[in-house]
């Protein structure tokens, strides 16, 4: 089955840009949606956004346009950039495969079926 | 934006049944998904589309969804079921994904 692995700096300074990459183990990056989700220490899950291989994206508005997700199908990778970070952005960041389709009745069914192990990013000077 | 409400904690004795609720306005009209997260680990999908189990998930895990409440039921609870559980839906009005606040299940 597909495996996902996050990589990137574990420490970012305030006001700088957080950059993470997720490597997908098989060639399925061309066939699915891909997403980033984060979890502040001791708190719940927060959806950041998703991307399709066409470049179509959708983001959580609470991030106020600071997030950018991109995909590189030649490398089987997708990435997250989060600008102007503050301590509130300290979290474990997960990448995940996102399944999104409509059933026969028109009900949209959208969920995350495979997750990376997560990587802790701390924002501190 | 759409809000999902979960109880912060549920305690259950081994061998008994745990029921974790996820409340939302007319959630019965949405497709609900559930994730299990053990300490220090990534979430794992245990139920999708209200009641479907991914491959490898034990039949002790089941789901239902009606009215304003979706429920994850864990039958014959085992110590290994101790974890945080999150519900998730797609909010049609905002076209965004929403997670519940999570429920910590403690096996007594």
Structural class of chain A: mainly beta
Would you list the SSEs of chain B in sequence order as H and E? EEEEEEEEE
Q: If you compute it from the alpha carbons, what radius of gyration of chain A comes out, rounded to the nearest whole angstrom?
A: 14 Å
Helix content of chain B: under 10%
Distance between the termini of chain A: 39 Å
Number of DSSP strand runs of chain A: 11
State the helicity of chain A in percent bands: under 10%
| Weakly predicted, low-confidence segments of chain B | none
* Approximate strand percentage of chain A: over 45%
Q: Summarize the biggest pleated sheet of chain B.
A: 6 strands, mixed
Largest interface (CB < 8 Å): A-B, 23 and 25 residues
- For the record, give the distance between the C-alpha atoms at the N and C termini of chain B, rounded to a whole number: 36 Å
Shape of chain B: globular
What characterizes the major β-sheet of chain A? 7 strands, mixed
Number of helices of chain A: 0
Quaternary assembly: heterodimer
Structure description:
The complex is a heterodimer of chains A (125) and B (108). With 125 residues, chain A is mainly beta. Chain A has strands spanning 4-7, 11-12, 18-24, 33-39, 46-52, 57-59, 67-72, 77-82, 91-102, 108-115, 119-123. Helix content of chain A is 0%, strand content 54%. In chain A, the strands form two sheets. In chain A, strands 2, 4, 5, 6, 9, 10 and 11 form a seven-stranded mixed sheet that branches. Chain A has a four-stranded antiparallel sheet with strand order 1-3-8-7, with no helix packed on it. Chain A is globular, with a radius of gyration of 14 Å. Chain A starts with a strand and ends with a strand. Chain B is mainly β and 108 residues long. In chain B, the strands form two sheets. In chain B, strands 1, 3, 4, 7, 8 and 9 form a six-stranded mixed sheet that branches. Chain B has a three-stranded antiparallel sheet with strand order 2-6-5, with no helix packed on it. The model of chain B has no long low-confidence stretch (mean pLDDT 97). The chains are: A mainly beta (125), B mainly beta (108).
């Amino acid at each position: 089955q597909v495996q996902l692995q996050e990589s990137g700096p574990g420490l970012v300074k305030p006001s700088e840009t957080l950059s993470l990459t997720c490597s997908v183990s098989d060639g399925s990056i061309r066939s699915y949606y891909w997403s980033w989700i984060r979890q502040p220490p001791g708190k719940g899950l927060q959806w950041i956004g998703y991307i399709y291989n066409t470049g179509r994206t959708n983001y959580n508005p609470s991030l106020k346009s600071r997030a950018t997700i991109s995909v590189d199908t030649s490398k089987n990778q997708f990435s997250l950039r989060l600008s102007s970070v503050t301590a509130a952005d300290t979290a474990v960041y997960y990448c995940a495969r996102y399944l999104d389709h409509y059933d026969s009745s028109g009900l949209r069914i959208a969920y995350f079926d495979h997750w990376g192990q997560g990587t802790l990013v701390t924002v501190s000077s | 934006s759409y809000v999902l409400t979960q109880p912060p904690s549920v305690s259950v004795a081994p061998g008994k049944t745990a029921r974790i609720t996820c409340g939302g306005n007319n959630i019965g009209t949405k497709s609900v998904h559930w994730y299990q997260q053990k300490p220090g680990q990534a979430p794992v999908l245990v139920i999708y589309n209200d009641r479907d189990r991914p491959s490898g998930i034990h039949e002790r895990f089941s789901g239902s969804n009606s009215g304003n409440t979706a429920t994850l039921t864990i039958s014959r609870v085992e110590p290994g079921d101790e974890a945080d559980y999150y519900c998730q839906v797609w909010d049609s009005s905002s076209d965004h994904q929403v997670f519940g606040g999570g429920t910590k299940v403690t096996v007594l």
